[in-house]
Design goal:
2 copies of one chain form a homodimer. Chain A is of the alpha/beta class. In chain A, 29% of the residues lie in helices and 19% in strands. Chain A folds into 2 domains: 54 residues, no CATH class; 216 residues, Protocatechuate 3,4-Dioxygenase, subunit A. In chain A, a hairpin with a 6-residue loop joins strand 7 and strand 8. Chains A and B meet through helix 1, helix 2, helix 3, helix 4 and helix 5 of A and helix 1, helix 2, helix 3, helix 4 and helix 5 of B.
Chain lengths: 300, 300
């Protein structure tokens, strides 16, 4: 029994807190100090969660199953973990931490799971619609400015939104091309002009584990009507944001917590021929919205 | 501008802590009070983690990517999220919380990702090896007892372990059947007898995201030599546990924090014919190990 008595002389972790201390110790030799900081903080908080709720083995199994299904729901056109991050408010907290902007700069909001590379480059006023899905034409115009109010020429606006049926192109199985996406450049006066449809409220994807969780929590899956923008320009800090339609439902209970007052914009109805219909060459009925994006200089 | 001024009158979350409060509020209507408790605690702890480390957007993206790849690594024979839970010590903390046993009862440890249903039922002394993978024969024997030391007849022992090459059958792509698994029953005196090979230390699966994380943390992927058991009997609380070989390396730095002193057992070498070789009908060299499992009565 000499082997046995020798090996059991070592003091081994026996309580939950012993285990936490031992796991933290094992991360001490992480090469990258930032990774060490993140992993040790993660271990502390996850262990504290398990201890606080006294998680049962059955609940642990449900958690493992939930995470597994969430990962397996992800593919080239679906990002269920971003959706989970969004509905838990994690995306907005990260967004606030990562995008502290000087006063006057356009505020950011969630990126969401529906951005795609390869949106078509369009001229000013070019139409984001590549197929007919109904809805009311919207002309969204404004400028991209610096903090002093000077126009930024050749700024890039990467724009995307859901179609009037509430679906992004990647959710629309009848589509074999992009729709409701476009990249626009500002002119020498910093002006841009987007042609699209008035955005509509829509339900976030609820056929996966995240949707199940929202239903169990009796939470609304709706997002208020919005258009996504990533606005960038050389020498400036880019902004990932939305503009929200002030006339939309669900501005007070966005499923992903993305609404900020400064991003709410009036969409003005034009039901008869007027100055705007002549200016944009669009027959009524249509709506217009105006929004100026303000970029802060690049820091770091 | 009447719509706009009306909707922006509402006070909206603007700081990170406002977002946390709003997310907690949204879970208030969860039907199941236990689910509400778990989700609200999870939100508090995950938000606290993000704020403590001031997680950057780039780091958030790495986290999303890590979780996605972890889920996508899972299939019928691979459970990368259990592996993640194991190496973060989450499994052991949950195990300690869920398995508070009376003094004298056999302690539990991690279940691990390699259990499979459908292991063959074997008679006492039946061999768990269905293919030849080398190694030294091990005869593991003992009794299943109640807290008063009385034998429990007809108790079920579900036993599995890695082969001498360090692989479980599900990892061995050359195998089309189970190997190193068996279900045994105790006799009227509570005795069981397992025939297998002496367990070896092995590396946890390191070809996935969890392995990458361990390498970045300079953490050892090794587990000390052990045999898995789930021991159950009518009227008793089942125990999920291992027995560890006292002569094994890595007893002090098990990658999944599973070692407990009470589970370390001497594996005794028999290099010449002796009483044990006659008793078990096994030619030397072989090893024997003895362990009595003690089950607590079923509670609740």
């Amino acid at each position: 029994m000499s082997t046995l008595s020798a090996v059991i002389e070592k003091v081994r972790p026996t309580t939950e807190d012993d285990i936490t201390a031992e796991v933290l110790r094992r991360f001490e030799n992480t090469t990258d100090p930032r990774l060490r900081e993140i992993m040790q903080s993660l271990v502390r908080h996850v262990h504290a969660f398990i201890k606080d709720v006294q998680l049962s083995e059955k609940e642990w199994w449900r958690g493992i199953d939930f995470l597994t299904k969430t990962g397996q729901k992800c593919d080239a056109e679906r990002q269920e973990f971003i959706l989970l991050s969004d509905v838990l408010g994690v995306s907005m907290v990260t967004d606030l931490i990562g995008n502290r902007k000087p006063a006057g700069a356009t505020e950011s909001t969630v990126f969401g799971p529906f951005h795609r590379h390869g949106a078509p480059e369009l001229p000013p006023g070019g139409d984001m619609r590549s197929v007919e899905r109904g809805g009311i034409t919207a002309m969204i115009s404004g400028r991209v400015l610096d903090l002093q109010g000077h126009p930024i020429a050749n700024a890039l606006l990467d724009v995307w939104q859901a179609a009037p049926d509430g679906l992004y192109d990647v959710q629309d199985t009848t589509l074999d091309k992009t729709n409701m996406r476009g990249k626009y450049r500002t002119d020498a006066q910093g002006r841009y002009l987007v042609k699209s449809t008035r955005p509509v409220p829509y339900m976030i994807q609820s056929d996966g584990p995240v949707g199940q969780m929202l239903r169990a929590a009796n939470r609304s899956p709706w997002r208020p009507a919005h258009v996504h923008f990533v606005v960038s320009a050389d020498g400036y800090s880019p902004v990932t944001t939305h503009i929200f339609d002030a006339g939309s439902q669900y501005l007070n209970d966005d499923a992903v917590f993305g609404v900020k007052n400064s991003l709410i914009v009036d969409f003005v109805a034009h039901n008869t021929a007027d100055e705007a219909s002549r200016q944009f060459g669009v027959a009524p009925p249509f709506v217009t919205a105006e929004y100026d994006f303000v970029l802060a200089p690049l820091t770091k």
